[in-house]
# Entry
Amino acid sequence: MRAAVLHEIGQDKLEVLDDVEAVGFGPGKVKLRVRATGLCHSDVSAMSGVLPQPAPFIPGHEGAGEVIDIGDGVTGLSAGDRVLVCWLPACGACPACRRGQTQLCLAGFMNAGTPNFKRPGGDVFGFAGTGTFTEEVVVDAGCAVPIPDDVPFEIAALIGCGVTTGLGAAINTAQVEAGSSVSVIGCGGVGISTIQGARVQGAAQIVAVDPVESRREAALRFGATEAVAPDGLADAKQRITAGEGFDYVFEVVGKSVTARTAYENTRRGGTLCIVGAGAMDDNFQVNMFELFFDEKRILPSLYGGGDVLRSYERAIALWRAGRIDLESMITHRVQLAEINDALDQMRTGEALRTCIEL
# Structure
């Protein structure tokens, strides 16, 4: 079957091959036929080494498709079911799951170290234990979440990662209050979803911050009340908050420098929410006096900061009601053979979200 493979960490191009086989099918597993997958910035971060991932590997974790086969012991799924891919499934038994913090379950991460593909030359890993830049993939049954018939595969794919992450940051983690002021730094697919989440929550002012003009224009279409380049944030802070700072600031870039900017633009007693996935050696620093004196809440948000199954259902309900716009987030549609063009469009900021159709 066809798949897009990264041979070594640090390479910026994928090779589309037709000699890849999905392996590992057995008890507790399901085999999926991928129909659509989104290109998420985390895929690029894994390729560059910012996010840890053994190689060679097949990127992709934001996918949707159909069940081909189910292994022994799998319940609630049948061949032909339409599903989205959950890259961080909850085991239901670990301490995090028992506490109700299923997004912190590590069971899914353990899968990242087990190859689920192979080629004539050896084993191939799937990113985050999945790997959706391929026609077929074998995953744990918990990774395959049934979707209603009225949800298109490309919409389901976005809900599988970027939409859930951004909406959840605003709704679950920060719990944005109606009438509040919000700033979102970084307006790719996750940032746009965060903006939509803040709008759903009733924020009065939502300032989008991004160096790419097309992304700023997109942010306005998705609910931002204004959009500025990074050098315009100080002026927006002064005009909107009289210099006090925003009630909520979301960092959706994954870099310490933007996290520091976000901290400085959060009002005393306000909330800084870290959504971007960054590198292990990139350290965010605050001094002990400001940490104590400013009483700013620093809240990291992993995969939307809540139960992902409930978050999926909420996203679908909001989409059906017209409260969030998911179709317009897909600015580019490509075939698997065009994956490297899609990567370039993401890196330059030209694409908001690219759907790879398989």
User: Anything to note?
Assistant: The first strand starts at residue 3 and ends at 5. The mean pLDDT is 96.
